[in-house]
Amino acid sequence: MAGRETPLYRRGKYWLGWDERRDGTRRSPFLTTFWYDPAAGRVRSASTGTASEDEAILALDRRYLADSSEAPAFCGACGQPLAQAAAYLLTDAIADYRLEWGDARASGDTIEARLKHVQDFLDAEEARGAEGRFGIATSCAAACTSTFVTAFRAWSHRQPVVWRNGVGQITVTKPRSPASTEAAIAQVIAVLNHAANADPPRSDKRPTYRPLPPKQVQRTRRTRIGIEELARMVAYAAEPDKRRGALHAFMVASICTIARPGAVVDICVAPDRGQWASGSPTIDLNPAGRVQNKKARPVLPVLPLLDQWLSAELLAYQALAEEDRVGRGFLVNYYGRPVQSVDSAWAAMLRELQLPTGREWRPYVLRHSLATLVRNRGAEAWDLEGFMGHRLPSQTEVYARGDFLSVQRALQTIIDEIERLVPGTLHRTGTGAASPLKRKRGAEMPG
């Protein structure tokens, strides 16, 4: 019978559970949303269509938000919505934010992890009983106060960051950085502001605090790798018959673009992505449909080496049947399938080459190192800022895109030097130069 056990989740009049018969057997393999219907005088139910608790919670949240009787209260005299932060739970605000905004973002996984950390704090406070100042009943009004953020910071700093294997066992643990805590605080601020900005508003309060600035909580990355280390890495990735194609492509694309790892694995030649077409002198690191954020992805000139790799990937893509092209065309791929990161292959490379394996040696070291090498080889500061996406283009540059010639020249000297140290390893086949790596003249400006 529905409602005999503690609900898995509750929101307003709705609760989540399994639809069970009196003997305990389940009527459905899917989780069910229940609610009491006063007009009918009985409990009603609707299948969520899933056995996954997380997906079922989202289904219940959608039903709740679509229910006009569960909407914010309205003034009987003027009809205006009465947003009440004291009556709107932080857990509900988090659920609504993820449903209406966060889960649709490219950074949805990161947003989910940060908000999971906040919910872990609420659970920990709840477990303290009378000693806890916050918990699952914490309202948005309480979450907007400096008392809340002070308590969260103190708790968060004591919580290690953990990694789990496929069966949920903790395999790696390390102390939590202040930057990680402040990132979670920034996400809470976004949740609370989303509640206040909703139409109609769900909260009448906004946070009284801000996250600490990055300069106060982020460690300065000091590790850089030189040309010799780069050459060793490229040679390792290009070694034939080792199934390191994704790592090889990642290395080459990083050298040619100095892009962030996430942007590198996102490079795709599929036409619907709108990033690059055969013969185009430029590549847009921001694919069609992706909203630019503060980590801007610029439009860059295509160096000759990158042009060879993109052209080869486009030929492979075009050789596929139309029905097989969906999700293909990514430059960094594992037997045609896109990859989210090369972290595992990167870690294996560091071990094999007997290089350090600490935090500062993760794939991001390529971007820092290449930026340093390029700067020391004469790249102009203005060119380097634009090339790396640290400076958003002005309205003038929207029409007259820069060539970043000083960066192109510096990168080409790096490519030439790697080619001299480990000949042929920069090429896609790893069997030597298919065509000479000649310098292009300045990339043509698109019309």
Automatic annotation (TrEMBL):
Keywords: DNA recombination
Region of interest (Disordered), residue spans: 196-218, 426-447
Protein name, per record: Integrase
Taxonomic placement: Bacteria, Pseudomonadati, Pseudomonadota, Alphaproteobacteria, Sphingomonadales
